[in-house]
Amino acid sequence: MKYLLLTFIILFSCNESAQRIAPEPKIGDEYQEGIIFYIYQPTDFYYVENEVHGLIAAKEDLPDTYIWGCVMSSVPFSHKLGDGLYNTNIIRNICSNTNMADACKDEWFIPNVTEFKEMLKIKQLLNLKTDYYWTSSLITSDQASSIRQDGNTNLLHVNYKLNVRPIKQF
Questions:
Q1: When you count CB atoms within 10 A of the terminal residue's CB, does the N or C end of the chain come out lower?
Q2: Mapping DSSP to helix (H, G, I), strand (E, B) and coil, where does residue 20 land?
Q3: Mean of the pLDDT values across residues 141-167?
Q4: What is the pTM of this model?
Q5: Which is nearest to 163 in space by CA: 84, 85, 66?
């Protein structure tokens, strides 16, 4: 009987310790090669009930400056949280020149303007430059939204070369 009780106490203690070791990820945490800057909320399209998902910013900019992509017409771009991947895939599939979308590897993509604004909430952790960064938000057929770390946005021609800070979903 003592052996059975001792086994139960040890197993219970191990389970309690394991639960404390892996806390839920939160904004500002280093996670999956980046830093979490947004956790999806119940009103977000990508929210999954009883699961924690969100967006991660790369710890550094891509190593060079890049053009946005190419001139496009009648292509619907999204500015909703989580849709930077959708926008980046459009750029990859339509533009034949080397651009910022091509520079993103694996699951990384270019944030849209809404995602970048969320990323600015933890800008002190990201060491962003004071220069403009591209977003994946095309506003006119030949102008895309760019943004600085102070939150100032600007429309620039898609052939300008700017910094890029990729993000990914988790």
A1: N
A2: helix
A3: 96
A4: 0.83
A5: 66
- Distance CA(133)–CA(68), nearest Å, equals 10
* Alpha carbons 162 and 1: distance in angstroms, whole number: 71
Residue with tokens 């190593």: 63
Domain assignment present for residue 113? The answer is yes
**Between the CA atoms of 143, 145, 146 and 151, what dihedral angle is there, to the nearest 10 degrees?**
150
Closest CA to 110 of 51, 45, 39, 158: 158
Q: Which two tokens stand for residue 54?
A: 């969100």
Show the domain range for 80: 59-169
**Spatial separation of the C-alpha atoms in residues 46 and 55, rounded to whole Å:** 10
Which residue bears the tokens 């806390």?
A: 23
**How high is the pLDDT of residue 6?**
42
Q: What is the pLDDT of residue 4?
A: 44
Question: Does 164 fall in a domain?
Answer: yes
Asked if residue 7 belongs to a domain, the reply is no
Structure tokens at 125: 């952790």
- Whether the pLDDT of residue 82 is over 80: the answer is yes
Number of domains in the chain: 1
